[in-house]
Write a structure and sequence with these properties.
Layout: H1 3-21, E1 26-30, E2 36-43, E3 48-54, E4 57-64, E5 69-77, E6 81-82, H2 86-93, E7 105-113, E8 122-129, E9 132-147, E10 154-165, E11 182-193
Antiparallel strand pairs: 1-4, 1-11, 2-3, 2-11, 3-6, 4-5, 5-7, 7-8, 8-9, 9-10, 10-11
């Protein structure tokens, strides 16, 4: 093989390798119609569990499958908190609990980590709630990207879970009545590839 052919082959191989390593991250916009950050909190020290969700959220996910990296950036409208009980919704938005007038949004930002079989299994992130930012790690229980059969757009979906101590965020209503401060998080999210 001539040296010019060898050189061309080497350049082509280098270009292919560089392309595989430096594949650009793909951006996905969170679909607010299929995304529901939800939670479970104690009522009266074990009498029952209250479940709620945030009905309005937005943000982005980036994913680089080749590099096995990615990011999450989510904003949740705390005025859209929903326990399925109007009186509780009103109380939760008051200054006694989430103080939505002063802190209208909660945010979560993080990095997709610990990829297995091409999919992330955890998010190392930070939650800002009630004006306080704390690290919160989420476990990704399922993660899948595929074309949505209805709109034909590439969509990624995940189910994630984690725990927080709400007292650490200054939301300790009911502690004096024996309410447990641990809250379980269940996040269902879908995100559509940006155009």
């Amino acid at each position: 093989m001539k040296s010019s052919s060898l050189l061309a082959l080497a350049v082509a191989a280098a270009a292919l390798t560089a392309g595989a390593v430096s594949a650009a991250p793909v951006k996905y916009n969170i679909d607010p119609n299929h995304t529901y950050p939800s939670f479970t909190a104690d009522h009266m020290g074990g009498l029952s569990n209250w479940r709620g969700k945030i009905n309005s959220s937005s943000g982005t996910v980036t994913l680089d499958k080749e590099a096995q990296t990615g990011t999450v950036d989510v904003k949740m409208d705390m005025s859209a908190i929903d326990f399925g009980h109007e009186k509780m919704n009103t109380h939760a938005k008051s200054a006694e609990i989430f103080n939505v007038e002063q802190f209208p949004n909660a945010t979560y930002t993080g990095k997709l980590v610990n990829f297995k079989n091409g999919a992330p299994t955890e998010i190392d992130g930070s939650l800002t709630l009630h004006g306080v930012t704390k690290p919160v790690k989420l476990k990704i229980n399922s993660f899948l990207c595929k074309p949505n059969p209805m709109n034909k757009k590439e969509t990624c979906g995940a189910d994630a879970s984690g725990k927080i101590n709400r007292e650490e965020f200054g939301v300790d209503y009911g502690k004096g009545y024996g309410f447990k401060q641990e809250v379980e998080l269940q996040i269902q999210v879908e995100a559509v590839k940006a155009d």
